[in-house]
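so i finally got all the pieces together for this one. its two components total, 644 residues if u count the protein bits. some of the lines might not be protein, just check the labels. i wanna see the whole assembly predicted at once instead of chain by chain like last time, that was a mess tbh
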Amino acid sequence: MSVRFDVRAFTVVVLLLVAALAASVVLIGTGDFPIPAADVIRTLLGNGDAGQEFIVNELRLPRVLVGLLVGASLGLGGALFQTISRNPLGSPDVLGLGQGSTAGALVMIVLFSGSATQVAVGALVGGLVTGLAIYVLAWKRGVHGYRLVLVGIGVSAIVTAVNGYLITKADLVDAARAVVWMTGSLNGRDWDQVWPLLGLCAVLVPLVLGNARGLRMLEMGDDVAYALGVRVERTRLLLLVAAVLLTAAATAAAGPVGFVALTAPQLARRLTRSPGPNLVPAMCMGATLLVVADWASQRAFGADQLPVGVVTGVLGGVYLLWLLVTERKAGRI
Amino acid sequence: MNADRTTSTAAAGKASNTNTTSTGSDGGPRTNTRRSTVNRLSAENVTLAYDQRVIAEQLSVEIPDNSFTVIVGPNACGKSTLLRALSRMLKPNQGRVLLDGQVIQSMPAKKVARTLGLLPQSSIAPDGITVGDLVGRGRYPHQGLLRQWSTEDERIVRESMTSTGVAELADRYVDELSGGQRQRVWIAMALAQQTPLLLLDEPTTFLDIQHQIDVLDLCAELHEEQGRTLVAVLHDLNHAARYATHLIALREGSVIAEGAPADIVTAELVEEVFGLRCQVIDDPETGTPLVVPAARKARTTAAAPVGVAKS
């Protein structure tokens, strides 16, 4: 999608995809019943024995696919948000979309003791409503920059308070379930989570990439984009809606996995060293990050001991601090 | 057909050259409607407003083809607003802006962008972008999903950089450049758009004097050598008088005078538009009008009654 074919960016994308696939294979092989990588690949290709087939295809593959899709969605959503707000902090984590989804999920868990599907729907709706609220509140001749970030932080604070209230209202079982959900975890994800997410990505990713050139122009300011013939408001609204949907769907599938949306686009553009939104590299980076983080949490703390959100949170927090320090040196914050 | 059009345009241009519209009475601007639009770009009886704040009412302006038109006027007189309307960034509440005989808002955005370029004041260079990449983005309206980067794009980008004198900076990062260089790069980007009309919103603001002249010389070259129609908003009246072939003086959203600078720039006009007492002498370098503000003493003593009457 680049203006001129960018060899470095292409190489980065290929390497990230290879890394994501390799990590996926290793992750499928990891667990209480370890399977060597060669066997994993053989099983995935349909030549494994029955026992391995069940473990790989029914238990671990969907979990890894959810991880890849959630990571890719968060990476892409984050890149869209950061480009539109022209601010690395304008990412869904900071804007409170995750908290919004959490509120939706908590309502389902605490007030209705809902099923997993109901919780996912609640999270999706919560994220969409929060996205809409931020958009309406930040709207003033187009959403951009600090206004979006500040409104997002405000909304995030309010929703966090609501979440705290819901948890105190909950009984012990619901509260435990809520807390696990809130950390963001891939435990027990199966094909039911894969299909809706895959369907959504299949629609949204081509749509977003089709508008990527307009987004590049938007980076230079609304006036320049207008002058170049971009339908600014239409493009921005479409991409924001896509970004909110991607983020909300990812959160509905895996809980609010922290900081992937913030870090993936930034890491990707540092690797490609190419200007612009770097949408595809950010997407691949998100997928890689999430799968590697899931593997790291299982590896270090044993299977299903530590939700993946804890690992991304720790890594992302460190990265955020580093970002703030370097941005300060560059005189931008 | 084409030749016909240009001669009639020239005739129309001449006729309106010394047309000093009087807008003293309220009915003034309403009678200001011009003859049929021969020129490519014009505004007809537009009312321009931001939200509820009305900047100009019933304003009509024609941009003569192949001119270097400069819009001048005091702060908040609506000159940038007019430019935004001409570039379809601001939709008039009433009236219409015509480009090649069509209402500009009704035209496809990319088609407009292939005819009319704009150098806005607020442009942001993306982090880590090189000069060549930025100039290349000017090719956007000529590209589509299926028609991406071509050798022709490459050639036009190189030409645009050469004619703005930034060719040797092609691989440098835009962040590293000086203000004057950066402005040249943005102009190069607008040139790469290859539009016969180019609008520039205060292209010399924030530049020191030698870069101001540098940018204006560049505009004059683009106008003379490449035959583009240029419209610029400028703060400095003397720069405007020196470089413009057609001057539009605005005050409070109305055209006070328009025409060739030598014909319309007088001490009376400057006082009417800017409220400044001055002398107008011949520029020793170019022979164009040069505005010399009256000395402070002369202004305060002589101008006092005028000032009271005005306020």
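The first helix of chain A runs from residue 7 to 29.
Chain A has one domain: 7-329.
anyway lmk what u think
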